[in-house]
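ok so for the tutorial part 2 we go from a plain amino acid sequence to predicted structure tokens. step 1 is just haveing the sequence, like this:
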Amino acid sequence: MPTISTDYQGQLRTEATHLQSGQRLITDAPTDNHGKGESISPTDMLAAALCSCMMTIMGIQAGKRGVEITGLAAETTKVMAQDPRRVGEIQISLRWNNPPDDPELISALKEAALSCPVAMSLHPNLKQSVSFDF
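step 2 — the prediction. this is what the tokens look like for a chain of 134 residues:
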């Protein structure tokens, strides 16, 4: 059964609908690739998916230990490569103000982030640079 239905809207724009929830997402080509950049680009979405997956898996691991990670935040940078044009690197900086003083938990959360399903699904040539500020 399909997960997402996507329609091409014209002018390098798509609309994807998550079939289970009905949530919709618009993408536009970026301005450096013939687009208007009026919405998230597919390659930006790839970078966001990696970061969101890391945070989600960290949340699952923390929850198993009775810890809430609200306040965890991140900044993500996508670096494009050429020949062929592709995402060459995704840089993610995770920060958490006032994390618990529990080195075992922190180690488990970092390991969970780096082995999230999206991270494990990306090609090894795509560099994943992840820093933890906690």
